[in-house]
Amino acid sequence: MGEVGANVMGAVFNLNHPAHTVDWNFIHMSVANVVVIGLMLVVFALAILLPFPGAERRRGDAS
Amino acid sequence: MSATPTRSSSWTVRVREAGVAALPPEKLLPDGQPTYVASWIYVFGVASIASLVVIITSGSILSLKGPAWWHYTGVGHFFNSVHMWSVELFFFVMVVHLWGKYWMAAWRGGRQRVWITGAVTFVIAVPTALTGYVSQQNFDAQWISTQAKDGLNSVGVGAFFNVTDFGQMYSYHVLLLPLAVVGLVTAHLLLVRTHGVVPPFELDRRPALAPPPDGGGAASASAGAGS
After folding, report:
1. What number of other Cβ atoms are within 10 A of residue B12's Cβ?
2. Given A18, A54, B34, B54, which is the most exposed site by the fewest CB atoms within 10 A?
3. CB A44 to CB B99 under 8 A?
């Protein structure tokens, strides 16, 4: 990555510090991991709730 | 010359016949899926396979170029990043796939081996990723390996699985563990094709949701909900 690219990415993500962590009783996790777990839960919920394209047509064809 | 073909008893014939009997071509490569598969929750299995293909492809390129290439060239850095992010995606979609299959009890209908091969694949994928992280040859790899060695030594396997030995970890990462993951995924897929995709629970057969015998289902349900 060139200097310009490094500066742009550096402006978005400042990684020049120790990781931020979440501490709750014995649970000790980085914020990045907490965010990923939260995203997985959101995606899981959306996968159940959102209609699949063409699902109604397929069920209609089958019945 | 006889017109009746003689039946060969060779092992290749026996294997072929057993294979076709267990998994006929129309089940191995079907031209359609049940209507209940038209749901986003059924997408995450194939998403796991797609990300695994990217992992294997990018990892093969990294293996061909040898260790350290990913540090001192731009192209190497790119493929190193593709490899790492495809691993992140693989675990992300595999966990959502696992949750979906757990809550629909995907071991139903004689699918125990499907569930077991999937669960074991997840368990094997974890050390596959770990050996990759400790093979990076940077400060991150040093940090992870020096932290992991304490945990592994505490359970007595440090002498056999030394996370500070780059050669051993790299061999595990590029050959032994990927072979296990790909073999297990192949078995998992063939078992899914053999048994079919697990159907959702049959809600209409659950006693709590069945209409009462007097035919006043909607009214009774409304009264129940308001009481």
Report:
1. 8
2. A18
3. yes
Structure tokens at B11: 């092992």
Q: What percent of chain A has pLDDT over 70?
A: 86
Q: How far is B156 from chain A (nearest CA, A)?
A: 24
Domain total in chain B: 2
pLDDT digits (tens, 9 = 90+) for B143-190: 999 999 999 999 999 999 999 999 999 999 999 999 999 999 999 999
Last residue within a domain, chosen from B104, B129, B162 = B104
Looking at the fold, whether B81 and B155 belong to one and the same domain comes out as no
Q: Are residues B112 and B192 in the same domain?
A: yes
The residue segments making up the domain with residue B74 are 38-104
